[in-house]
Amino acid sequence: MLSSSNTSLREQRWESLAPSEEARDLARTARDHFTSLGSLGLTRRAVVGDRDVDELWSALLEAGYPQIGVPEQFGGVGDAIDLTVLLEEAGRALLAVPLLTTVAACQLLLEAGLGDDRLGQRRSTVGVAEGRVRDARVTCGPVRVLHGADADSVVLVVTGDTSVHVVEVDLPSPGAVISGSVNDLDPSRPIAELTLTDVEVRRHEGFPTTDYHQLLGPVRMCIAADLVGVAAGALERTLQHVLDRRQFGRQLAAFQAVKHQMTDAYVRVEKARSLVLGTALAVRDEPMRPRTGQLSLFALGSSIDAAVDVASRCVQLLGAMGVTFEADAHLYLRRSHQTALALESASAAFRAAAEIERESHV
């Protein structure tokens, strides 16, 4: 029999899978704020080459969004559940600033025990590279990172033969070379290529190679939450279209084939959202556990699949409008494919999760 204290803790954990009223208030406030800042309009402009992130970033920094999910001792507020709720709204708004990469970098530093009171204050990016760390200097790359050209620092998981290091490097630094955008699919979230050659690190910590997936758990959680928001935004836009549009004298939403497509899209989004919230709960309560790393892989893989699939359905169900620039369907499709390149592919994430499961039964 479980003790009453254990039962209470278990009930609290289950309740966290449904965001609290405070978290839902945060979501509503963030959504309204992003709308008032004209986030979608800025993303449209960024896609055609008119990209200026400084003013929007300053507004987000002033609102304290990059410090959500950072412990109070480092000047932050809220927990992993609050962070995923915020990032879903950021994904829904298709923000053209490095909020996702900044908070993901913060969470990686926290997971590695490298937190300080500067977390979230600077624009950051995050990635994984093969290389070496020796005498507080790192050599690795090339590695592709989201918003690399916008970043003031980069936090990397550097894998070697016998260990894994989490390192933070200031940008620019001697020996750090950042290319321009290497993928033009979504210029509002550009990918840069980064190479580090004997670069001094600001801080670092080493871990055994077995900790690789656990270290990346919070990063995957952040990316997955953003992708859930992209998928949810595409679903809402599609739903509004099929409710408003008529064909052959009937509402589009009345056709059974359309209903099936919308239902499938809804299920994909809800499945991914549940896995993201479950990962946030594990990251908050059981960090650096193999099961937490495995759950983050499931969340990332499902969120990638959901975002790409639902954004594609959005283009399809909007018909001829879906392939026009003005309809915005392409913005969700661009964002979903670009963000899917941040870490593992969906298939690689599911394969890694299966390997963790197999190893647990050996």
Query: Which CATH architecture of the largest domain?
Result: Up-down Bundle
H and E string: HHHHHHEEEEEEEHEEHHHH
Structural class: alpha+beta
How many strand elements? 9
Query: What is the count of structural domains?
Result: 3
Radius of gyration using CA atoms only: 20 Å
- N- to C-terminal separation? 30 Å
Low-confidence stretches: 1-11
Biggest sheet: strands, sense, closure?
7 strands, mixed
Count of individual helical segments: 11
Estimate what percentage of residues fall within beta strands: 15-25%
Fourth CATH level, the homologous superfamily of the largest domain: Butyryl-CoA Dehydrogenase, subunit A, domain 3
CATH topology grouping of the largest domain: Butyryl-CoA Dehydrogenase, subunit A, domain 3
**Based on CA inertia axes, which overall geometry fits?**
globular
Give the integer mean of the pLDDT values: 91
- The strand order across the widest sheet is 5-6-2-1-3-4-7
Helix content: 40-55%
CATH class of the largest domain, named Mainly Alpha
Describe the fold and architecture.
By secondary structure, this protein is of the alpha+beta class. It folds into 3 domains: 4-111, Acyl-CoA dehydrogenase/oxidase, N-terminal domain (Butyryl-Coa Dehydrogenase, subunit A, domain 1); 124-208, Butyryl-CoA Dehydrogenase, subunit A, domain 2; 211-360, Butyryl-CoA Dehydrogenase, subunit A, domain 3. The protein has 11 helices and 9 strands. The chain has helices spanning 4-15, 21-36, 39-47, 54-63, 80-92, 99-111, 212-244, 256-285, 290-317, 329-339, 346-360; strands at residues 124-134, 137-146, 153-159, 163-170, 176-183, 191-200, 203-208, 246-247, 250-251. The two termini are 30 Å apart.
